[in-house]
Write a structure and sequence with these properties.
Elements (H helix, E strand, L loop, with lengths): L4 E2 L3 H6 L3 E5 L2 E6 L3 H10 L1 E5 L4 E6 L3 H8 L12 E7 L5 E11 L2 E6 L4 H11 L6 E4 L4 E7 L3 H7 L6 H5 L6 E5 L5 E5 L8 E7 L3 H12 L4 E3 L2 H10 L41 H8 L6 E7 L10 E3 L5 E10 L6 E7 L9 E6 L2 E8 L10
Helix pairs in contact: 2-8
Length: 379
């Protein structure tokens, strides 16, 4: 694992006895205690995640919004200052190079957060696609740490980590919004309220050098509230229950946003100030794809037995005909039965359709259900 990058929190993970694994070119904590305990802590109290492997690319300048309108499938111009939006970077053929979150930090300042394994690609593509615009593209991934607190007690915990003058700002953040705050440690942070677990939560972007102090402070403040450090395994089962895609599983270079059920993020109607259409990268292919019947559809699958599927397993009809492929799967700790996401042919994609997954030669029964599998309780 010597060729893997380390986050600034590696020593903290080792001190906590974490099992470390390679992920997206980084050495990351897989678990600290047990997958089940960490998953349940996030659903019932709170979990602390090291997300410092993610990429942070800043775009600043007079044409920052226009550059992103050209580079991404979404409409950056319409994002209000202080808000965020889920978007995608697509190739000319409409395939997904990465899914990402775009934060508008100022009128001419945007932050693009990319997946770890794609961060360098996203940075290169944004530089190339912004070349004809008055904008500076700066990759600050190496100097930025990202720590997340997720769970029903996240707001209370992060409020205690925030300086008194900024607590009201933090508590007032709506979903998919961000604001600069000062932390109780004295560090400055960008606090965002997005998340990847299906629970309420916050992400704190800080300078790499401030990460260790913040991590330890979060554990101290959060312990009375039930907060525990959580690894990649819990993060994966949490996001699967919430029906959230993972690049390399539900999204990749063989997939467009439409197959993944994410056509809503593609804005074919983007226009310049003069009313002319924005010819963003991949627009022609995506317009054609939207107008064509799909060859496959992403669905949720509920297991009717006890055996879980795995990514890559075949989905079959009751007659034994292959109908698709599982992209993600796990036993659901929250729901108590196996769940999966899979690409299947349109004729077997309707909710309630009985299918099976070939689990090592045995056809295990699954039923098509709507996504997400889990929604957090409303107050």
């Amino acid at each position: 694992m010597s060729d893997l990058k380390s986050t600034p929190l590696e020593a903290e993970h080792q001190a906590a006895g974490a099992t470390l694994t390679g992920f997206g070119g980084w050495l990351m904590p897989l678990r600290y205690t047990s997958d089940l305990a960490e998953h349940r802590a996030v659903r019932e109290a709170a979990g602390l995640f090291d997300l410092s492997h993610m990429g942070e690319i800043h775009l600043e300048g007079r044409q920052a919004a226009a550059a992103l309108d050209h580079a991404l499938v979404g409409n950056a111009t319409s994002i209000a200052v202080g808000r965020a939006r889920y978007s995608m970077l697509c190739a000319e053929d409409g395939s997904v190079l990465d899914d990402l979150i775009v934060y508008r930090l100022g009128e001419v300042h945007f932050l693009v957060v990319a997946n770890a394994g794609n961060a360098e690609l996203v940075s290169r593509e944004l530089v190339a696609r912004a070349a004809d615009f008055d904008v500076a593209v700066t990759d600050r991934s190496a100097t930025t740490a990202l720590i997340a607190v997720q769970g029903p007690r996240a707001e209370q915990i992060v409020a205690e980590l925030t300086a008194p003058d900024d607590v009201e700002t933090l508590r007032g953040l709506p979903y998919y919004a961000a604001a600069p705050v000062t932390l109780s440690t004295g560090a400055r942070a960008l606090a965002a309220r997005t998340g990847y677990t299906g629970e309420d939560g916050f992400e704190l972007f800080v300078d790499r050098d401030d990460a260790g102090v913040l991590w330890r402070a979060a554990l101290t403040v959060g312990e009375p509230h039930g907060l525990v450090p959580a690894g990649l395994a819990a993060r994966d089962s949490l996001r699967l229950e919430a029906g959230m895609p993972l690049y390399g599983h539900e999204l990749d270079t063989t997939t467009t946003p439409y197959e993944a059920g994410l056509g809503r993020v593609v804005r074919l109607d983007k226009v310049h100030d003069d009313g002319a259409s924005v010819e963003f990268v991949g627009r022609a292919a995506l317009a054609a794809r939207k107008a064509s019947p799909p060859a496959r559809v992403l669905v949720g699958l509920r297991g009717e037995g006890r055996r879980s599927a795995r990514a890559g397993y075949d989905v079959v009809t009751p007659a034994g005909t292959r109908a698709g492929t599982v992209t993600s799967a796990a036993p659901s700790p929250t729901l108590g039965y196996p769940i999966a996401m899979a690409y299947v042919t349109p004729e077997v994609s309707a909710e309630g359709t009985a299918l099976a997954v070939d689990v090592r030669g045995r056809h295990e029964p699954f039923t098509v259900v709507s996504l997400p599998f889990y929604r957090r309780p409303t107050a």
